[in-house]
Amino acid sequence: MTDRLSSQFAFLDEIDRLKAIERATPIGDNSRPENSAEHSWHIAMYALVLADHAGPEVDISRVIKMLLLHDIVEIDAGDMPIHMAHDAEAHAAKEAAAAERLFGLLPADQAAEFRAIWTEFEAAESADAVFAKSLDRVQPLLQNLAVGGGSWIDYNVTMDQIDTRVGVKVNRGAPRIWQFVRARVAPFFSASR
Amino acid sequence: MTDRLSSQFAFLDEIDRLKAIERATPIGDNSRPENSAEHSWHIAMYALVLADHAGPEVDISRVIKMLLLHDIVEIDAGDMPIHMAHDAEAHAAKEAAAAERLFGLLPADQAAEFRAIWTEFEAAESADAVFAKSLDRVQPLLQNLAVGGGSWIDYNVTMDQIDTRVGVKVNRGAPRIWQFVRARVAPFFSASR
């Protein structure tokens, strides 16, 4: 049991580093970039609050688990902004190696379980993963909107790109949420471009 | 439904401010104080990882929900370091008012549900709350240990105080975890004082 606790605390100590991984979007007062640990908390709260807009086949407790875990690979692989051009295959390989190392700090049964949940999230096929991904994509829009543009300005983003890169996917998992958020976001782009 | 989403997003936008609430303990690289949003993520991960050390009557999904919510009142009431002398009654009143205002941004059914979970956490009587509180008290010890003292030095803390203010309570909800963590923490105090 002490060995098990040693592995578990080695993992819990190591994932503290997610607090130092910066994202492209700022926090709401625009004072600094959001980090991936506080982002993970925020979208877990999105899942808790927006649960009633998920389909009946979605298990919100699993979605929350998934969202708490989903960015831990960034400790080794970094955050990749959605609007930044990049080699998707190379980045996916980096993330897979990160999942091996980081979840591998845990006892074997938990390492396998956490890796499986992360893989399910990345695949975006199960009902839980599709809803989780929808929330992960919606939150940065609200952060950017709160600060008057944020990473939309940094990456010269258009409403068409939002619809293609974000909207199509959010609409799959949470159509009512997308309708609501799109209506809030669209005026920014018609006003500024 | 749009009204419901408006209230839910008003709440989700507002709680972003938890990312600016600083705690007494630093993050693991000692570069800055931890904020309450990333702390909430970290202890939700503690619950996920350490679930097998909870009693059979503990519902880990509820514990995670509780831990995600537990610090939101700090947006209005601030964080109160455990080793800082303060007027407990006045602070509790401030937190109760904060819970009214902040959870009150949500639709009425969710406001009532979240307030009830927060009240249960604060009361520290149910099995879920006792385990959740144990994790919330253990994590700062590991943060301080990682940086060679942290808020223990700022507040001139002794091992006796750790045993009284932290140990007794952690032991109630998670005796195996306390035994393990105490053994890691004690050498710091015997070496330095």
Automatic annotation (TrEMBL), chains A, B:
Highest taxon of the lineage: Bacteria
Residues annotated as domain HD: 15-178
Keyword Phosphoprotein: no
Keyword Ion transport applies: no
GO CC list: cytoplasm
GO molecular function annotation: 5'-deoxynucleotidase activity; metal ion binding
Stored SUPFAM superfamilies: HD-domain/PDEase-like
Keyword entries, A-Z: Hydrolase, Metal-binding
The protein, known as: Putative hydrolases of HD superfamily
Species per Swiss-Prot/TrEMBL record: Aliiruegeria lutimaris
